[in-house]
Write a structure and sequence with these properties.
Order of helices and strands: HHHHHEEEEEEHEEE
Structural class: alpha+beta
Radius of gyration: 38 Å
Strand content: 35-45%
Number of helices: 6
């Protein structure tokens, strides 16, 4: 048995060592040329095997991008100017209580149907307090009869000697049914409005959560009237209350 195993160990390496490579193998898929030159993975991993003509063709296929002279679009947002200097005057009844009020507005046009508007303002309410707010609105008009806008805002205000902070989002939709008649839908969500506890007739003076709709009638080319109903959240009892809205509208070209 030991002699048979010893003979097998001697014969087997001799047979393996005696094998030589034959490039003219009868099985064509085992030819060395087939593995060397026709294997896609081999050519993919060795780009130096690709011809210079093929490389130049790929480069030229992208050359039209360079020749197109495409200018980059720089989206520079309009500045929001806020007065950070000292008070212009002391807010007392013996002097002008509105001396420190300001209003800054700016905008940026993206296309004929899309534009961005920003605002920064401070309003003083004698015997009550003041409010300072900043915000931005993205406006889009997908059709001649429809316009939508939405964006965030932030506010810092005081009332009866107490100071509050607030931020949220607001939006509006306008349906132009006729040259003289429009339908408006408004909405705003105030993050801290309920906690701050300011509501009722002061809703437009201090930020608060609300939604509603109005009908707008264009009387002349520069003047109109808007009226409707707005529902606002009463932060005291947590219920929604209706409020009638009527206001003048001024038009510009």
């Amino acid at each position: 048995m030991k002699k048979s195993i010893l003979a097998l160990l001697i014969i087997l390496p001799s047979v393996i060592y005696a094998q030589t490579e034959n490039l003219n193998d009868s099985f064509p898929t085992l030819k060395k040329e087939s593995f060397r030159y026709n294997e896609k993975l081999d050519n993919y991993l060795q780009p130096e095997n690709n011809s210079q003509a093929a490389y130049s063709a790929r480069i030229n296929s992208y050359r039209h991008v360079q020749d197109a002279n495409i200018n980059p679009i720089n989206l520079n947002l309009p500045p929001i100017d806020v007065y950070l200097g000292p008070p212009l005057e002391s807010n007392t009844f013996t002097r002008n209580p509105f001396a420190n009020d300001y209003s800054f507005y700016s905008g940026m046009v993206f296309s004929d149907n899309a534009w961005l508007s920003t605002h920064s303002r401070q309003n003083t309410y004698p015997t009550m307090g003041a409010v300072r707010s900043i915000g931005a609105q993205f406006n889009y008009r997908p059709a001649s009869w429809l316009a939508v806008s939405a964006g965030p805002y932030g506010a810092k205000y005081n009332f009866a000697g107490q100071h509050f902070n607030d931020y949220g989002v607001s939006g509006a939709v306008k349906f132009i049914a006729h040259d003289r008649i429009r339908f408006n839908v408004y909405g705003q969500y105030s993050v801290d409005g309920k906690k701050n506890g300011l509501y009722g007739p002061m809703m437009n003076m201090y930020p608060q959560t609300y939604y509603g709709g109005t009908i707008e009638v264009k009387i002349t080319n520069w003047f109109g009237i808007e009226g409707g109903v707005v529902r606002e959240l009463n932060p005291i009892n947590g219920k929604w209350e209706n409020r009638t809205v009527i206001a003048p509208v001024f038009y510009t070209k």
